[in-house]
Structures are given as C-alpha cells and as structure tokens.
Amino acid sequence: MLPHRLRQIIETTPKNSLALISHSDIGRVNDAKSHLETYTGYLWDWWPLAPRIPNLATGEQHLQWKACHPNFTRNITVLQEHAEAVREILKIAADHPPKCHCCTTEKPPRASCMALRSIFRPVLGLLEHDKQRSASSGSSSSKAAMAYTPTSNNTSRASSSNISCGPTAPSPTTQPAPTRIIFGVQGLRKSLEIEQIEICSQMNDQIFFPEPKKRYKKHRLMVSKWFSPFQFHHCDFVRFRKISVDRVFFSCEGLPEDIVVANEYEHDPKPPLGKIPLIEPDVFAACLDSCDDGCKWSVLGPWLHDCFQLQPDKERITCIPKKKKEFAVKSKSDAENLVWGIQPGHAVSLVMILIYALVPLLSAFGFWIYWLAHHPEDWQNASVPMVTAVTLETLLLSLLVLSSRSRLRDERR
Asked: What's the pTM?
C-alpha cells in the first residue's frame, strides 16, 4: 500500500510529469547545499537557486515531478518497493488523472487589468447606485412594495451577518459547527501566542493559507520580519502544552494518536497511515507563497515573483488537525493541557545571507576605491572600512554556526 503522500502526487499530477530517478549524481552545487545544511543544522531557502535534492541511500529512488502551480520541479525520496509500485501504476494510468491540477489551473488576472478595474470601479459603482435609486423611487408608489421592502432588507441583513467563512454560505440551520486549527507563534514572551483559526465548511486551501501569514505577522516585530535571516518558510505539526493561564509552550512534534484524543480532532489521514509531515515543508512553503486575486507583485515577472493561485479545493487543509472545540487558553482549569496544531517553521534565506555578506563588503570596497582615487598614498585609512567589514562578516558567520551547533546539541539531549 502506497503512502498517502505518494497517492496524492499520482492522483494530482500529469503522467508525463512524473519520473523515477535511481542515480544520485546530482552535481557539485547540490552537494555543497547538502553539506551546508548538514553542517549548520538548519533548513535553507535556496531561492533564487533550485531547491536541494536529497541524497539517495541504498534502496531509495527519487520521484521527480513538475507541479503546475507553482511551476517548479519537486523531488521526494521513495523506497525501492514503492518505486516499483509507482511504475506499475503509471503503465495503466491515464495521461491526466481526475484530480489533475493542470486541468483546473486558473491564472490570476494581470496587474494591468486589475489597475484598470480599480480605476473604473468607482464610476461603475456610481452608475449602479443611480440605477438602484431610480428603481426604488419608481416602485415607491406601490403599497405592496413598500410593505415588502423592509422585510427583504432585514432578511438579507440577517443572512449576511451569518457568513463568517468563505464567500458563500448555506442556511445557518444546515451549517455544521466550525472547527479550529491551533496555530502557535513565538512573540515577545517566552510562551507562545496561540491563534485559533476557524475552519467552516466553505474554507478551502485558497482561503486558508493567507491566514497563517497574517497571524504570524501580527505577533512578530518589524525588525525580525524584514531583517532576520530566518524567514517563515512552512509549518510543523506539533503538540502544545499549557502550563498556566495563557501560557502555552511547544512540547514536541506529533499528531493526536490516542483514540480518545483523536476523536476531538478532524484530519485525514490519521495515524498509523498519517505520518508527519502530512504536508512536506517545500509544499507548505509553496502554498504560503500563493497569491490572491490581483497580486500587485505580478508586474515583476516570473523570475522575481512566480505568481500563482491555489485551487479552491481542500486537498491540503484536510491534512491539518482541526480541533472540534475551542481551546480554553485563558481558563484556570488544567483539564485540557495538551493540544495539537501547527507552528511556524523557519528557514535560512540565501537572499538575506547574501545581502548581509555582500552589502558591507561592496560598500567598503567602493569607499576603498574612492579614497585611493582622491588620496593615492593613504592606504591605511582606505583599508579601515574593509577590515571592519571583513571582521563583522566573520562574526556574523561565527554566530550562525555557533547557534546551529548549540541547537543540534540540545536536540541530541
């Protein structure tokens, strides 16, 4: 029986985009990435370079496929017996499976179209308002219409107030109770800031994935968001422990496995079929990078900004554990001190590291050239900024390595 993730890939990917690779010769650049990640102990975001391809062990192969959104090549390591099963399935599979994303991919509107739409929207709104006002004034002579109008207004107002998730909602009597995804963010306190994201029946991947980014930015300082080399990359499936009122800490990675506890959560697949990560970090990162309608960054082009939209399905949100009842964070009772949810996972941004490495060096080198051009014999003063920049670069790299070493030592304990 194939793992859930492999079945998910086969069911949503065109047949000609899948390939099994048995060799491990993946280039020196990839080897350098692998050594750097192993030495530092951190996950790295290699953009604008290609993601790192994992090294193969004995009895393993790479399953490589090209996703339609986002448009880049992905790799996953599979066992030999699973690779043979995938080959047999691909022999009889259709070119495009029923759930293939390529058949339903919708590109977001271009920024120029959105700009024109935003310019003409006020004019169209005024015309629509005048039309409605003239229609209402024409029907005001009818007493039946006058008696009916307040009722319809009250009804529409009441129905719109019940819409809490998604653009459309059924009748309030048929809508099931919303569940909640527990999202813990490290803020200014030592304990985590808990956000409970409500999930109703209309919630899908397209609506959900912008929410973790908004909740994350809510509890992070501007300095850490813009200048930290550790950027919000994905989410880990974890267990939280409440030790006091409004004091929740990270406990360990995991899923609700106990039968009694598992009944309080909704997610698929569940253990033992479901194993963490239910959503791979690179897939979660791609979903977090998805765009809304009218993305303003699409004018930068595909190299600087790969603009894409998720489909309005529930393929990935189904995998995340959702609590059926609200987590009483501020309650004094310890009856519910363990909860399961997701927590931000960070990756070292290659772009930020290059900025911190190159900007001081290039600035110092530019000053060195400028000073020698005006003071040809004053080499000592020209070299001071360069020496200072090199010293700061060495200190920065040393702090990064030392922090990674200490983190690895704590994990081994």
From this structure: 0.71
